[in-house]
Amino acid sequence: MFENLSERLERSFKILKGEGKITEINVAETLKDVRRALLDADVNYKVAKNFTDTVKTKALGMNVLTAVKPGQLMVKIVHDELAKLMGGEATELHLSGKPSIILMSGLQGSGKTTFSGKLANMLKTKQHKNPMLVACDVYRPAAIEQLKVVGAQVGVPVYAEDENKNVNEIALHAIQEAKAKGHDVVIVDTAGRLAVDESMMREIASLKDAIHPDETLFVVDSMTGQDAVNTAKEFNDRLDFDGVVLTKLDGDTRGGAALSIRTVVTKPIKFIGTGEKMEAIDVFHPERMADRILGMGDVVSLVERAQEQFDEEEAKRLQKKIQKNKFDFDDFLKQIEQIKKMGNLKELASMIPGVGKAIKDVDIDDNAFNGIEAIIRSMTPQERTHPEVLNQSRKMRIAKGSGTSIQEVNRLVKQFDQTRKMMKMVTGNQAMSMMARMKD
Ligand code: GDP
C-alpha cells in the first residue's frame, strides 16, 4: 500500500540530512521534491500545492526549535499535514434509524457488492448487529447471484425480488421485511455503470429520496487515482453522500485518491478495502494512514487485529497445555489458522515499523503456511498429539501424503520442538501475565 509514495517522500527528506537548521532555501528544495512526489502519486494539483505551502509556513515558523533536527521536524510536519489532509479523526457511521439504512453507490466494478458483504460481516461480528443485504442491481442477473453468494459467505440474509425491476419498490419491501424480522441494519447494494451516466444517477437519486438512508456511501476503486476523485465529485454533486469507501488499497502503490478525495469533495473516507476476502475491511484512520505512508508502521491497527482474533477461552486452554508441556500439532495448526484470519501476511508485516520498506520487494505470499498445514493434516491424530512417535517411516509417509519432502517434514518437526521448548521456558505466571497484557 502506497509504497511508491513512501519511498519518494523518504528521498525528499534526505535533502535536509546533515543540514544544521531549516532555511528558506533548503525548505524550498525539499518541498519541491515533496510536491513532485505527490503529483507522481496522482494527487490533485491544487491539493499538492496547498499542502506544500502549508508545510512551508509551518516549517519556517517552527525554526526556533533548534533541538530538533530539520529532517525530523519536516517529517513531523508532513505527517501531521498528511493526516489532516485525509480528514484528521476517523468518522463513524450514523446508525440511529430503526432499522438503519445504508445505501451503496459507485461505478460498476468499484467493489460495492464485495464491500456490502464486508460491512455486513463487520457490523455483525464486531457491533453485534443483525444486518440484512438488499439486491438492487437488477440489470445483471449475475449481480443478484453474487450478492447472494457474499451473503451466504458471511451468514447474512439477502433480500431480492428476481422478477421486479423497480428498485425503489424492492428497497421499500426489503425495509418492511427487515422491520418484520427484526433486522436493525439494511444495506442496499445498487447497480453501477462503467462510467457516470444520467440514467444511473437518476435511478440512485430517486432511490435515495424513496428510502431516506441514514448513510449513503460512495464506493470507489483507489487504484484509479484522479479518476476516482473526479467520479467522487460527480456522485457527490448529485447524491450529497455521507462518506467514501476506498477499495483495492492493497494494490494501490501511489495513494493519490486517498490523499485528494477528502479535500475535493469535503466528505470523509470512512472505510478501506484491502483485499478480496470478507475480512479485508478497515475503518479509515487518517493518522494511522499517515504513519504508514511515512514508513512509521501502524502498530495500533496491528494490535487491534490481533485482539479481534484473540479468544480468551482458547488462550486459557492453550496455557494449561503449555504448562503441562502438552502443546501439540493440533494446537500448532489452530495458531496458524488464527494468524491467517488476521489477513494478508505482507500487509500485516508492513504494519510493523521499519518492516514495510524492507519487505517491499519480498514476495510473501498468503500460501506460506500451506506446506506446514498439509504436513500436519497428513499426520494421524496420535502423531499430532504425541509427536515423539514420529520415526523415519512415519515421516516418509507424511511427506508423501502431504506432497512435500522428508526434509520439509524434518524441518517442521524440528521447529515444533524448538517452539515447545521455548514455550516451556515461559510457562506459569509469566505466560499468564503476557497474555493478560495482550488483552489490555
Ligand atoms: P461492484 O460491481 O461494484 O459490485 O464490484 P465487485 O464487488 O463485484 O468487485 C469487483 C472486483 O473487485 C471483484 O473481483 C472483487 O473481488 C474485487 N475487489 C473488491 N474489493 C477489493 C479490494 O479491497 N481489494 C482487491 N484486491 N480486490 C477487491
UniProtKB/TrEMBL annotation:
Pfam family, one: SRP_SPB
InterPro entries from the UniProt entry: AAA+_ATPase, P-loop_NTPase, Signal_recog_part_SRP54_M_sf, Signal_recog_particl_SRP54_hlx, Signal_recog_particle_SRP54_M, SRP, SRP54, SRP54_GTPase_dom
Every SRP54-type proteins GTP-binding domain range: 268-281
Residues reported in the UniProt entry to bind GTP: 106-113, 189-193, 247-250
Gene3D superfamilies registered for this protein in UniProt: P-loop containing nucleotide triphosphate hydrolases, Signal recognition particle SRP54, nucleotide-binding domain, Signal recognition particle, SRP54 subunit, M-domain
Domain of life of the organism encoding this protein: Bacteria
Compartments reported by the entry: Cytoplasm
Reaction equation(s) it catalyzes: GTP + H2O = GDP + phosphate + H(+)
The entry's keywords: Cytoplasm, GTP-binding, Hydrolase, Nucleotide-binding, Ribonucleoprotein, RNA-binding, Signal recognition particle
E.C. designation(s): 3.6.5.4
UniProt keyword annotation of Ribosomal protein present: no
Keyword check for Cytoplasm: yes
Family: Belongs to the GTP-binding SRP family. SRP54 subfamily.
Domain text: Composed of three domains: the N-terminal N domain, which is responsible for interactions with the ribosome, the central G domain, which binds GTP, and the C-terminal M domain, which binds the RNA and the signal sequence of the RNC.
Chain's role: Involved in targeting and insertion of nascent membrane proteins into the cytoplasmic membrane. Binds to the hydrophobic signal sequence of the ribosome-nascent chain (RNC) as it emerges from the ribosomes. The SRP-RNC complex is then targeted to the cytoplasmic membrane where it interacts with the SRP receptor FtsY.
Subunit structure: Part of the signal recognition particle protein translocation system, which is composed of SRP and FtsY.
Listed NCBIfam families: ffh
Name of the protein in its database record: Signal recognition particle protein
Organism of provenance: Hallella faecis
